[in-house]
UniProtKB/TrEMBL annotation:
Protein's name according to its UniProt entry: Uncharacterized protein
SMART domains reported in the protein's UniProt record: LRR_CC
InterPro entries per record: Leu-rich_rpt_Cys-con_subtyp, LRR_dom_sf
Domain of life according to the entry: Eukaryota
Species of origin: Rotaria magnacalcarata
Length: 67
């Protein structure tokens, strides 16, 4: 995919990304080491689980102020 080499992504305060969008991101970015989603109101437990499931290199996860 076009983002298969992406290592860091910051979607902080992005209010319109859905848990399905996070799942697609996680499936497409296996080399992701840093993911910041502070203040994302649609960030759910399901979305966080998908990041853990598909992004085995993830070292830093920022979910401050998420629902």
């Amino acid at each position: 995919t076009s983002c298969s080499y992406l290592e860091s992504w910051d979607i902080s305060w992005c209010m319109h990304i859905t848990e399905n969008g996070i799942r697609i991101l996680a499936e497409s970015c296996p080399k992701l080491t840093t993911f910041k989603a502070e203040g994302c109101t649609y960030m759910t437990n399901y979305a966080a689980i998908q990041l853990g499931k598909h992004c085995s290199k993830l070292l830093f996860l920022d979910l401050n102020r998420c629902s």
